[in-house]
Amino acid sequence: MTQKLSLALAVLLVVGYGLGLLFSLKTHAEIFSGSEHAEPAEAPWPIGLALVTLGVVTVLVALVSEIFVESVQKAAEAFGMSQAFVGFIVVALVGAAAEMAVAFSAARKNRLDLSVGIALGSASQVALFVGPVLVLLSYVIGPTPMDLQFWPGAVVMVFVATLVAAFVTSSGRSAWFIGVLLLFVYAVFAVTLYMLPPQVQ
User: How many CB atoms lie within 10 A of CB 13?
Assistant: First the structure.
């Protein structure tokens, strides 16, 4: 029953993500354009060059990811890190390094809308697209079907992170101390996952 429910939810989440892209990129693009900070538009790349570049970058990212996964597995064994800690903390930090760099750069330029948009967009992409797609692909290429059933601690952390994000972004303003508090919330998650890893059932 859990696998059937996960499969249905995965399809719904992917559809929701697709509709969100349609909303933000096509039907209501003007809402997300940020016209007050508009920069001169650059000439678009030719479609052939863009596709070739995308293909080359995809192959390079796949190679680097393979090396990274092997290194992380050895480091996790050496430092006694659980799979939950590696997935929630290490992989999340390293995997989002480029996005974080752009978000930091936008924040330094007083582009809070862009900075928050990058952070929330990345989280939404993982929750609404990457996770559900992995569930769907597990029925095709995985050894066993994957489901969306997480241990209670993960559900609590996601819920707390969602509430914190809602509170931080609701005012449209920020300060350095709010950023420090956000880092403390992340540190609490990291320490908890390291010292109290979820029990393997």
Answer: 19
